[in-house]
Amino acid sequence: MIKTTQDRIEEIKKNGYTLDFGNVFNHAFENYKKIAVYGGLIFFVFAIVMSLLALVVLFSIFDAETVLEKLKPENLQPENLSLDSMLIFSGVSLLITCLLSPFSAGLIKMAYCAERDDEFHVSTMFEYYKAPYFKELFIATFLITIVNSILSGILNYIQIPVLEVVFSVTIALFTILMIPLIIFGKLKAVEAIQASIVIVSKQPLVILGLLVIGVIASLVGFIGCCIGIVFTIPFMYSLYYALYSEIIGFNPETEVENRN
C-alpha cells in the first residue's frame, strides 16, 4: 500500500521517527555538490536583478539625495525610524519575503531534480510562481513572518534581544519543513505549518544541529570573498530537501507528480 504524505505524518505523530545526523548531512552535501554552481549563479543574477529593480522603484518615487540619505545604515536602525517609516519598511519587507518564497521552493525543487539526474533550468527556479503553489507558499510565509515580526517587535520594545534571537531561531527551526511539505506533500499552508511543527518536535535537537551546521556552511562564503556566499547558500536548500527525503520520503505517485 502506497503511503500518502498525510499517512506518513499520522505515523510520525504516533510513533515518531529516527534521524541520523551524519546520514542527513552527507545526503545534503552530496546533493549540494550537484547544484552549487548553477544554483549559485542563478541566485547571484536574481539578487542583482531584484536589487536593481528595487533601486529603480525607489528612484522613481524619491529623488537621489533622499534615497541615499534613507539608505544610510544609521538611518535604518529601528530606533531612528519614525512610526510611519517603520510601518512602511515592515510592510515592504513582508511583501518581498512572501514574494520570494516560491523562488526558495524552486531551489529545493532543483535539489530534487539533481538527485534524480533530471535536467533543471532557470525555469525550475520559478516553477512555483503558479497555482496552486504560489497562494499556499505566500500564505504560509505571510503567517510565519507576521508572527516572527510581532514577537521581535515586542521583545525589541522591552529590550530583550537574547529572547528575540531565541524566538526567531525557534520559529525557523519548527517551520523548516514548511515549504517542502507544500511543494512535495501538496499540503495547504496551515496544514504544512502544523505538520512541520509536529515533525520537528519529534527530533528537535538533531534538526537544530543540522540547521546550525547549514547556516555555518552557508556563511563560509563570506570568507575570502563575500560573493562566495551565493555559492554556499544553496547548501541550505539541499538540507531542506534532504530532511524531507529522509523523514517523509517519496512514493512512486509523488515521484511522477513532482517530475511533471
Structure characteristics:
single chain; 260 residues; 13 helices; globular
Q: In words, what does this structure look like?
A:
By secondary structure, this protein is mostly helical. It has one domain (5-250). The protein contains 13 helices and no strands. Helix 2 (21-61) packs across helix 12 (234-247), helix 6 (133-157) packs antiparallel against helix 7 (161-174) and helix 6 (133-157) packs across helix 9 (189-202). The two termini are 23 Å apart. The model has no long low-confidence stretch (mean pLDDT 85).
List strands and helices in order, with pairings:
Layout: H1 5-15, H2 21-61, H3 64-70, H4 83-115, H5 122-125, H6 133-157, H7 161-174, H8 178-183, H9 189-202, H10 204-219, H11 229-232, H12 234-247, H13 252-259
Helix pairs in contact: 2-4, 2-12, 4-6, 4-12, 6-7, 6-9, 10-12
How many individual helices?
13
Shape: globular
Low-confidence stretches: none
Structural class: mainly alpha
Tell me the Rg in angstroms.
19 Å
Terminal-residue CA separation: 23 Å
Largest sheet: none
Q: Helical proportion?
A: over 70%
Tell me the number of strands.
0
How many structural units, i.e. domains? 1
- SSE string: HHHHHHHHHHHHH
Mean of pLDDT: 85
Query: Beta-sheet strand percentage?
Result: under 5%
Please summarize what this structure is.
The chain is built from 13 helices and no strands.
